[in-house]
Design goal:
The protein is mainly α and 97 residues long. The chain has 2 helices and no strands.
Amino acid sequence: MGNEWKKAIGNLRSFVGNATGGLRGGSNLASWVVAGTLAYFLWVKPSQELKRQQEEKAALAAATPDPYRYVEKRKPISDPQDTGLIYGKKNKPKDSE
């Protein structure tokens, strides 16, 4: 029973040692700090900045109206015709005899 535990702990230590590249002690910690710092500045931070810029761009695009959409600038002219058409031959009221 005790031998199995020792073997399991030895395998775990072996796995951790292999995963860290075989480094131990202070140099192991320093190498992990350097690797983590490089990973942050080369991959994590640029992707976060890109995502933030894209969100800002999307928010700005959503906030500003589309420059090509139609906007009514003035009130429509009331149509004096009976037909409701602005253009064309006007219907003049006939004089009663």
